[in-house]
Structures are given as C-alpha cells and as structure tokens.
Amino acid sequence: MATQTDVVVIGAGVAGYVCAIRLAQLGKKVTVIDRAELGGVCLNRGCIPSKALIYAGGLYERMTHAEDMGFEVQGVKVNFAKLIKWKESVVTKLTGGVATLLKANGCTVIAGDARFTGSKSLDVKTSSGTQSLTFNQCVIATGSVPTALKGFDVDQKQILDSTGALSLQQKPKSMLCIGGGYIGLELGMFYAKMGTKVTVVEATGGLLAGVDPELTRVVAKKLEKMGVKVLLNTFVKGCKKSKDSVEVTVAPANSEKTEKIDAEKVLVTIGRSPSSQGLGLEAAGLKTDAKGFLAVDAQRRTAVSHIYAIGDIAGQPLLAHKGSKEGLVAAEAIAGKKTIYDVVAMPAVIFTDPEIATVGLSESEAKAKGFDVKVGKFPYAANGRALSVGEPDGFVKMIGDGKTGKLLGVHIVGAEASNLISEAALALEMGADVEDVALTVHPHPTLPETLMEAAEATLGHAVHIFQGKAR
C-alpha cells in the first residue's frame, strides 16, 4: 500500500531542504526524497567544496607571494590529498547539519529515485526496493547537472566535470578548461595557484558572458599575471586520450587551422542543465520547455496547480540562494499564506580572483530601459583598507537614475566583493536612492567604504578621487 503524506519534496539541495523545513514549521507532514545526498550539488559538489578550495588556493598564494610585506617564506608545500580531505570535512559538517535539521523538524527522508506515477502519486526506487507514496502537494527541486559536450565523455579521470575537479587526489601538472564561464575560471584559477599549467578555451569573444566587460577585464589581467593562457573565439574539435594526457584539438572561429594542446586533465565547464530527466513528469501532467525547465508562476506553481518547482529546474538564474528563496515562497504558498516571489534584484557572485559580485541593472541594461543613467566608480586602489591588506585591484561601479535619483545597480570586482554586495541588494530591495547610500556613514577603514564613495562619485562629489568641479 502507498504511504500518504501532505507534501513530497523531490530533491534535498539548498532549495529542497529549505522548503521542507519551512513546510514542517508550518505544520505539514513532509517527505523528502533525494537520489544522491542531503545538501545537493551546492553542499556536496558545488558551492561549498569549491569555495573551500578557492580559499585554500588564495592562502597558498599569499604565503608564497608576501615579499612586499617583508615576509621571506620558503619551502611551503601542499599535501594535496590532505587538502581534499579537509574540504570533505567541511562538506560533512554541513551535510550532517542538514540531516539534523530535517530530523529535528520531523521530516521523513528517503534515499532513492522518485518517479511520478500520477498527478498525486509517485514511486521511489531505493536500495531495498520500491516505495509508493501519495501526496496532496509536491515540490520538485531536483537541481541541475553539468552540461555534456559531444566528443568529451566525462570519466572523472582524465576528462572531468566540476565534480571530478573538486575531488582530485593529486595536483595535475596541466589542465585545459573548456569554457570561460564562472565554473571554469573559479576552478582554473585555483589550480593555477596550486602550480598547475592552465589553459582556458572559450568559444565566444569574452570571458564570463553576461558580466560587465569592465569587471571581467580586471580578472583577465590577473589570469595573465598568473600565467593562465586564454584562447578566446576558439572551439574544441575533439580529443584523443593517451596513458598520461589528453590531446585536444582546437581551432579559431571561422578558421580551418587547428592546433593540438596536450593536458594531463581536461575540465569541461560549458554550463549546467536542469535535472528533469527520469522523473516521469508526463505521468503527472507536466512538460518541460525545450531546455528542460518547468514554467512556474509567482508562487512557484507549475501547470499542475498542486505541484511546485523551485531552484534550478524552475529556470534562470541558476543560483543557490535563488533556490532557497523560492523554497520559502513555495512552502508558504502551500500552507495558505499570502506570498509571492517578488525579488527586486537577485545578487550574483563569481569567486574568481578578484571576486565579482553584481546586483540590479548593468549600465547597458539601464540605458536600454531608457533611464537617465548616471555612473560612478570608486577604485580599490583609493581605499585605505584595500591597500593595507594588499588588495588594490578592482573597483565598485554604481548605476543610478539621474531623473529620480534611484539606485539601479551595483557591480563590484575586488576583494570580498561577495561580502559587500549584500548592502547593495538591501538598498535595492528597499528602493533606496543613490544619495541614501552616500549619506550612510560607513566605518573607517573598511572595504564597504567603497560603496559610499562610489555613491558619492555617482552624485559627482567624490572626495577621495578627483572628479573635477563638484556637482
């Protein structure tokens, strides 16, 4: 006989487990199903492990490049296997915390593959057999998977995706990263700091598609300084494996001329695709779009009103914090609360070196929307805190509307951009003017002062950079 529950949540990533806990807080009987592990990609194979390694890479770089501060450091070595073990310990602590929270809130967790058998029923294939469940509502939070590249079959030994790149037990001598997006650059820069010879191949004419080119130029400069070879407007044509390396054939766009590059490891990072296969969606009356996403309304309902979708499967942007927010909205909607997903501006962070963080409209987007665009920039090189910690590269770029004074967007490239962007996100959510940011007293000496000074620059009266006659 089938087991009845109020709500089934398929997927225990940062969208699913947040939704499940909130549902339980609101008095619902919740069953959570996940085929892999609690915490999903973010905690196990994405955000957390990658940022742990990126931090370690930055620490190693600082230890080996501190001559200007008077440090003479020699003989620093990295036990790579131990570093990976430390990374895994961080993951274990966080995933264990998720398990504890789900249990404490009374959620039932089933490890297995879920497949719909009807609009209010599904089967779960587990290691011990198949369980049948019926439900009143369901939340699909199955996340996404690395996009495959024809001719480059991932074996996690020589040809890797992001999962394999986060679990290598030895530092490779060389690595070719296919794709100059955020995943390729984050992991590529980490390995470059560890001493790996890194080549990045990108099919388009620029890195980090969709990011303001002014910001990406700062990262590109650091890549050059690190000795990372970047090939833009270049396509991969195929590869040939040997015992110790992979020979990759590349060619410039609109050219028949090819080049062969040997690398010990090849990292495929051309994007992520929604994990919507194998769910039996048609049995529930659901159909994805051509890219595999499920359409949702403001409360994250799908075309079947009692089935919701959150996180990556619900569409762009594919961000962990976006999924968590959607999880809260869906849970409260199921519980009958008046709620909608009405985020004014969704912040995004790229953990390159230096970091990039953005929220709101870019300069080009603001112009396209017809705003009277006012732009102010403040460089890290003019900030006392940035100089005192050896981080002079980068700037804060602020976008405002000259007619209304409203803040439209903030874009940061520089140290701790990931921590600075939340102030800008809050200002946008509250409908702040640029002047509100400028008038807010920021403690000195700190990096957040760059936001205040960028606001002053947008208004035409920055103090710590020369702008000519103040407005």
Helices and strands in order, then pairings?
Layout: E1 3-10, H1 16-25, E2 30-34, H2 40-45, H3 47-64, H4 80-104, E3 108-111, E4 113-118, E5 121-126, E6 129-140, E7 144-146, E8 159-160, H5 162-165, E9 174-178, H6 182-193, E10 197-201, H7 213-226, E11 229-231, E12 234-241, E13 246-252, E14 259-263, E15 265-268, E16 272-274, E17 307-309, H8 320-334, E18 348-350, E19 356-360, H9 363-368, E20 373-379, H10 384-388, E21 394-401, E22 407-414, H11 417-429, H12 434-439, H13 449-459
Parallel strand pairs: 1-2, 1-6, 2-3, 6-17, 8-15, 9-10, 9-15, 10-11
Antiparallel strand pairs: 4-5, 5-6, 7-16, 12-13, 13-14, 18-19, 19-22, 20-21, 21-22
Q: Please work out how many helical segments DSSP would assign.
A: 13
Strand content: 25-35%
Give the CA-based shape: globular
Mean pLDDT: 96
Largest sheet: 7 strands, mixed
Enumerate the spans where pLDDT stays under 50 for 5 or more consecutive residues.
none
Q: Alpha-carbon distance between the termini?
A: 75 Å
Global structural class: alpha/beta
DSSP, total strands: 22
Radius of gyration: 24 Å
Helix content: 25-40%
